[in-house]
Fold these 4 entries.
Entry 1:
Amino acid sequence: MFLRVLHDDDSSLVEVLDLPQLFDPFEPLVLGRLHAGEELQEPQSWPKAQLRFPSGEALPACWL
């Protein structure tokens, strides 16, 4: 699943690598890989509060 990460300067896509972690309301972070450039990026943790659906919609409250 791809989500948009909100930054002040850029709105890049993050590939979520652990979907159960995304759906767990007790997990504040989710493991994902930034899709920027041509090289495969290293996985890192992203705060769920900074993630949105590609359409711009916020994540459901039950996931947060």
Entry 2:
Amino acid sequence: MKKSFLIAACLPLLLLPPVFAAQDGGIESLRQTAKAFSSVARKVSPSVVFIHVEGRSPDAENGTGDWPFQDDLLRRFFGDDFPGLARPAPKKPRRAVGQGSGFVFSTRGDSAYILTNSHVVEDAERIRVKLHDGREYDAALQGTDPRSDVAVLKVEARGLTALKWGDSAKLEVGEWVVAMGNPFGLSHTLTTGVVSAKGRTSLGINDYEDFIQTDAAINPGNSGGPLLNLDGEVVGVNTAIFSRSGGHMGVGFAIPSKLARTIAEQLLASGRVVRGYIGLTVQPLNMEIAEALQLTQTRGALVNEVQAGSPAEQAGLRAGDVLTHFDGIPLADGGQYRNRAAMATPGSSVTLGLIRDGKPLQIAVQVRLLDEDAVQRAEAAAALGIAVRGLTPDETRRVRVAKAVVVTGVAPRSVAALAGIRPGTLILEVNRRPVGSAEEYAAALVENGEAGSVLLRIADNGRSRQVNLRWR
């Protein structure tokens, strides 16, 4: 018994050296990981910038600030002489200050080009960037693409180095990543984490989504900063967080470098983005619809509309088709279809794999150039909820106006309906621009469509008035 006890008692002593060796190896591994993070910080910090934005507050110039009846509700019914309706003078727009992050992605001579998020520089009147060494420069907006939330700035500065692009397609879930930016105005802050998911779509953040999800801490002010791999290469652009508190909760989203780089290079070259157009609208394929279509899985996208005269209609696509592949690449959902359709080169041909009546098909489609102005017109018109037409010669003589369009329909609970606009109301001006046809009305909406508001001068009950409609 004593012998057995002694042997058992000595076993822990015999095992100590290997345990210590294992601990030393683990600590050394942690040291190497820490050195990798430090190396990334040293390499990229000179190319990451703090962005300070000055602009106007969203208060409308023709609004009334604290005036509770912004749509002239009482004035509409009781007239200008109603007691107590003295309207306060419009407030002057206040200065608004914002901040974000960005990074140098290209240099040409004495010029450096900085990538950031579109929402960081939205409505900016002055943009300043601050470098890691304390230098500050005024920046000019080279181009912006709100649909993907990418913007490019230009600064006249020497000696800057562009960060290298990494391949976001090669990222794997669980891989280490580093986020660099200026959260809460704390310049050049580094946080680390892993890729927690890829290909996040249909989140409602951007029109075109293919987000990298990460648990690296991303907070307000990080927007536009780079997401990097351990080689210091940009694999994403930090854009948004999921949060109930306004701060980091372990779920952040970054635009993948493949998408951000394509958009940034187009903005750098021409100040605008060219997208492909096929002419399909799609919806998610849930289990109920899949079962009704006798499908065994929900991967793919269900075609719910084929636009008249579109490449899709000409190629023979139909509502009810289930898209499964885009040029041989499997489609997980409708978000992936929209991204790939937009990235397709106008003039090229793509092959859509689909299931129709339970049978697999492949259909070639010729890609056209997407008319962004037409998209904006449609979105603005849908947001307002107004349908219009031009006046007939008899109507023009009867209402005694030089130019106008007449409202023929108003969507229930739309911003127009809430403002008291109804069928028969005349629209004289859109953003101070006289309109005399449905085409002029649509074109005028585009001029201010991205701002999410429009100023209308309308006439009803024999009086004209100004109405500012906001849908964002």
Entry 3:
Amino acid sequence: METVDYTSTFITVAPDTRAVAGVEPTGTTIAAATFALIADSPYALRSSDVIFQVWASRHDVDHSSATERVNFYSRSHACLRSSDLGKRYGWGIHADADGRLAVYAVGSTEYEALAAGTAPDGSAVTVRPAMRSSRK
């Protein structure tokens, strides 16, 4: 089973983003669903949970089905570095030591501390940028 989970990592906004603040995505987009899952329950879900639950809800599949999850992860899937949260909407994604996620708006004090390599609990985090929207 492929893993898309990160631990002790902060995904910053993409280097080519135009976002200057975190804007909540709206509608029925993948970004809106991803944001809702993470923001509504900070540090409750891992990347693999979020990615599968968003896919399952969009494809009318029971997100609690272990068989569906195994089938889903039998193929490669993009990680949250490719999410529009960091590319377009101005949200950084923090995975704690257990891989549980929370989002932080670009420009906030928490975002700046995480981007500098320090987690809310004072531990060190690896900083990775979201993927660029366009080729350099």
Entry 4:
Amino acid sequence: MVKLIGKNKIFCAVFISGRGSNLKSIYKYSRKYSSKINLKLVVSNKSNVEGVKFARKKKIITKIDKFKNKRESEKKILEILVKKKIKLICLAGFMKILSGNFIKKFKGKIVNIHPSLLPKYKGLNTHKRALENKERFSGCSVHYVTEKLDSGKIILQQKVKILKLDTPKKLQKRVLKIENKLYPRAIHKILSAT
């Protein structure tokens, strides 16, 4: 579990691969007086994405690594995380799977947001699969990251009703709005519990 030292905010890193909508909501939360995090670092495996542009605009230290050699990339990133005294990693649409070794080094300090009501629909294409199975609800889950994909302890979940005319894209849009609210709440919850 993440330890909060006194009233100090802990240093947090967000890992992204795309538009960074959850990064933006985490950043917004980090600026609040009641927030328990200081967003210190953004890591991305893609260089020219909206999330990276946002991080740079906000003057957040940004590290780009294409993960061509996973072992080397993780080694470099771990060094930066230690140097920057990062105590919490938030995966926010990060499309690379971290190794067991990396996860062990940050055990209980890596969280992820997933666009389904876990344990249902782990992995990709969650909205398409939920619609094909005629689910009544979809949603999102914030969970701890373990070596097993999308299987860590759930911190918070929220349901989203599936509508008759939903397409994967329409459903994704509505779930994303909920994700943006749920992720900061989950961060606050885990850090308030310590």
